[in-house]
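Milestone 3.1: sequence recovery, worked example.
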């Protein structure tokens, strides 16, 4: 009886060992099948999708791609600036500082020098550059640094400030209003410049009638004004 008692656990032990080996094999197979990250840079055919946050640094002809061209692409995570082909996607928050002719972007004439706005509070960009959310165009002037474009814009971040000036063609950040407008020679090709302010820490203010009205604010009364060049109407507004 004692011997039988000692032998009984053996089949159960073997079963446990085999089950464990099976689980380990399955986990190994899943790990090998999981897609691997591209890494910091790689080469893809030109008809391949470009991953979000990646850019095309150069391009060349290739017989290995049915599209006829191959792209050298890189990840912009943790990077503050780089050079890209003009047809490259521009990551969110990045701006185009200058453009020049290049022989490294097969199929395109220009390459762009781009910067991550997360690391700066102001810069100069080509007129065709995206303007990051929360940034405004303070002035504009002619330039020879943006191949094919006439103007460059001086832009700045509105983070940690409560008022600034912006050209009339500038985006107005969410929650900001136009308090007054005047003529200017500092916004190349445009007549007006705006004085704008944040409504984050106030409960009422006066704005030009063409100002955006922030969500949760209401117009209490209109009034005539000479401070809104091009339109002589202003509004008193307050939080609802």
């Amino acid at each position: 009886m004692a011997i039988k008692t000692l032998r009984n656990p053996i089949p159960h032990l073997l079963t446990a060992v085999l089950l464990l080996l099976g689980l380990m094999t399955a986990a190994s197979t899943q790990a090998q099948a999981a897609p691997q990250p591209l890494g910091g840079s790689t080469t893809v055919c030109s008809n391949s999708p470009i991953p979000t946050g990646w850019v095309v640094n150069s391009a060349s002809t290739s017989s290995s791609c049915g599209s006829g061209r191959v792209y050298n692409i890189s990840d912009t995570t943790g990077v503050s600036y780089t050079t890209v082909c003009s047809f490259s996607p521009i990551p969110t928050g990045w701006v185009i500082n200058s453009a020049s002719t290049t022989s490294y972007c097969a199929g395109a004439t220009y390459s762009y020098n781009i910067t991550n706005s997360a690391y700066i509070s102001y810069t100069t960009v080509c007129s065709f550059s995206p303007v990051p959310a929360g940034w405004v165009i303070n002035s504009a002037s002619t330039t020879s640094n943006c191949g094919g474009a006439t103007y460059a814009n001086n832009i700045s971040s509105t983070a940690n400030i409560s008022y600034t000036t912006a050209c009339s063609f500038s985006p107005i950040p969410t929650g900001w209003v136009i308090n007054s407008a005047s003529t200017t020679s500092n916004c190349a090709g445009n007549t007006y410049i705006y004085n704008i302010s944040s409504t984050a820490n106030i409960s009422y203010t006066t704005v030009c009638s063409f100002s955006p009205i922030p969500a949760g604010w209401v117009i209490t009364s209109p009034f005539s004004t000479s401070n809104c060049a091009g339109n002589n109407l202003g509004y008193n507004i307050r939080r609802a």
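The chain has a mean pLDDT of 87. The first helix runs from residue 2 to 7.
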